[in-house]
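As a warm-up, study this chain.
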Amino acid sequence: DRRSSIERPSRHVPRPLTRQLQKGEADLSAKVERKVQRRAKTKTTIGSGAISNAQRLQAQELMMLLEPGQKLGSFSDFAKEYGDEAFCLRLLRKYDGNVPKCADKLRDVLLWREEN
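Now compare it with the structure written out below.
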């Protein structure tokens, strides 16, 4: 008798996931999607708005300092590669558009880049 009960297949059939679990997975999926969208959005914008023409002009002003004969033109090409538009825009955002302060910080970064 004991043997026959062991050999019999179980009548328990696995049930599909409960609705609550399915809802939790949907919530998690939506949360991940929002996070991905937020990351993608922050790569193309500064703060809450798009990059303005004034900010682009300020960034170009900083990048012009890297030209030969200018204040930061004596640094190596390796160091000056770091001073691209994206980096200059980040400096401008951090220092509220203060171009002289950003130029000083850019010089500090270039010095560090030359040494390391």
